[in-house]
Amino acid sequence: MPIDTTYRSTAPEIMDDFAMEGEILRDALDKIASINQLLGGNKVTLEGVKSLIISKPKDEVIRITDIGCGNGDMLRTLADYANKQGLHFILKGIDANRYTINHAQSLSKNYPNITYACSDIFDDLSKTEPCDIMLCTLTLHHFKDEEIIDLLENFKNSAAVGIVINDLQRSAVAYYLFKALCYVFRLNDMSREDGLVSILRGFKRADLLKYSKQLKLKSSSIKWKWAFRYQWIIKTI
């Protein structure tokens, strides 16, 4: 029976358990980062950041916060880019899982401009720390529609320059291609099952346009990117 992608799935992901820890989680985090690199996912977010700071002086300090940072791979990519370009990025990763944060910290020991915090962003949205740019890379699909609106309303008020969202397209083609990818990368059961659920919890362009309307955004762009994801850039200036 063909997979139905008409509506966003409400099925839970195993990784949504913030108390989860151990080798299986570590392996899943690192495999997700590797696949994201291979398929150009980090480039999608980096391009979004570059578009938001294009008119900024090179010596201006840019504060970037990554929500749902995983093993910190995106932050390290940004730190490497800033170092090569002579830019001044202050980077912070936030994740609700303590084990994940500890793992990210261990991988980022050589990056003095990256810090991490273990926090559930929904515990108190009013206490979100201000920054210039908020990132959501493969994170937004974990939330329900109403939670997404609450989260992005908060981000609009917290990010002085803009928001970069990089997330999955809900597509039957993507679903079946990921199944094949699982064999190539020998993903563990959790990574395989969560990956398939993630795609079904992902977005169609109409979903993002609906959110844009609800949020009354004045300046935003939605672009399809390889591999089966959307880059959604919101300017808050």
TrEMBL record:
InterPro entries: Methyltransf_25, SAM-dependent_MTases_sf
GO terms assigned for molecular function: methyltransferase activity
Keywords from the named record: Methyltransferase, Transferase
Residues covered by the Methyltransferase domain: 64-157
Gene3D superfamilies referenced in this protein's UniProt entry, alphabetically: Vaccinia Virus protein VP39 (3.40.50.150)
Any one of the GO BP annotations: methylation
Keyword Transferase: yes
Keyword Methyltransferase listed: yes
Name this polypeptide is given: Methyltransferase domain-containing protein
